[in-house]
Design a protein that fits this description.
binds guanosine-5'-diphosphate, 18 strands, five-stranded mixed β-sheet, alpha+beta, D-amino Acid Aminotransferase, Chain A, domain 1, binds manganese (II) ion
Amino acid sequence: MVKLTEGRGKELFRKYGVAVPKGVVAGSADDAARAVASGAVPLPCVIKAQVLAGGRGKGGAVRFASTPEEARAAAAAILGSSFQGETVREVLLEEKVAIARELYLSFALDRTARLPILMTSARGGVEIESVDDSEIERQTIDPFPGLVAYERRRAARSLGLTGPLVGELDRLLTGLYRLFDDEDAELVEVNPLAVVGDRLLALDAKVIIEDDAAFRHPEFAAVHDDRTPLEEIAREKEIAFVQLEGNIGVIANGAGLTMATLDVLKEFGGAPGIFLDLGGTDDPKKVTEAFLLMAQAKPKAVFLNIFGGVTRCDTVARGLVTALGSVAPSERFPLVARIRGNNEAEGIAILRAAGVTSVPDLKASAQAVVAAARGGP
Ligand code: GDP
Ligand code: MN
C-alpha cells in the first residue's frame, strides 16, 4: 500500500486542478519560519505534521500561528516528535482559511460491487467512521463513461451545495476522479472539503495508490510509507514479513496458517507481533534469510509452524539450522517448532540434531511459545 502524505497528495491535487490552500512543506523550524516570513505562506497559517496517521487535529499535530515566530515554535514542537509511532520529519504550512462548512468526499474501490465508489457527506471534518450511514451518499461509478453529470449533481445535492458552489464541486469532482483513475489510486479522500466563501478548498488529502499498480508509478516508489526498515529489506528480498505490536515471532507457510497461528497464540494469552510467511518456499537460502530477518526484529520467542505440502519439512529444517548457526549467541531466542507433513520425520531429525524440539500438538506448542515469551518454563 503506497500511502502518500498530505503534502504529496496535495501536489497531485494541484496537478489535476483541485484547489488547495497556498502552502509549503518544511523539514526544519528555520525553513518553516522562512516560508512564512517570505510570504510564501500567508498569515495566519496552519502547521500540520506530515505523518500517515489520521486524527492529527485531535492529536495536537495540527496547529495555528499568526506570526513567523509562532509558526517556528509550532513547527519546532511538532518536528521530531512522534505521532502514533511515526516520527514527524516534515510539516506542511498553509494559509489558514475561514471555513464556513466542512464536507466529506472520497473516491474508493468498492470491492463488493467491483467498481469505484463516490462517497459524499455534509458531515465533514470528523472521521467518516463516526458518521451515521444515513448521512453518507454512496454512488458506484461505471468506469467506462466515468463520472457523469447526474452523479456530480447528486453529490452536490447530498452536500447541500447551491449557486456557484455547484460549479465548483463539478470541477473538483472531475479533477479528483481523473486523478483516482489515472494514478491508479485505491483511495482519494478529502476530509474536510471546506466551503470558503463561494469556493471549495481541499483542506486535507489522503491518497493511496493501489499496490498492484505501483510498478506503473515509479515516481511514488521513493515516497516514505508505513513499512518498517526490516519490512523494507524483506520487500526487496521478496519475503512476506510484517511487524506489528507484540513480542512473539511467527514463522509459518501460507497466509491461512500464519493467521491461524496468530489466533492460537492470542487464545493462550500470547502477543504475536512479527510474522513471516514462507509461502511455498523451501529454498534453504531463502529460509535462512527470512530467519535472520526475524532475529533482527528481536522477538522474545519464535514459533515455527510449518505444514509441509509443496514445501518439504526437511528443506525448511535445513535452512533453519543453517540460520540458527549464524545468529549471534546474544541474539538467540527460544524457538518452538512444529513441523508436519511432507518429509516430516527427516525434518524433525534435522531439528533435533540442532537441539530444536518439534512439538507435534498445536495447543501444546503454542502454550510452550507463550510461556517462553513470558520468560517462564
Ligand atoms: P486530520 O485530523 O489528520 O484529518 O487533519 P486535517 O487536515 O483534516 O485537519 C484537522 C482539522 O483542522 C480540520 O478538520 C479543520 O477543522 C482544522 N483546519 C485545518 N486547516 C484549517 C484552516 O485552514 N482553517 C481552519 N479554520 N481550520 C483548519
Ligand atoms: Mn482530515
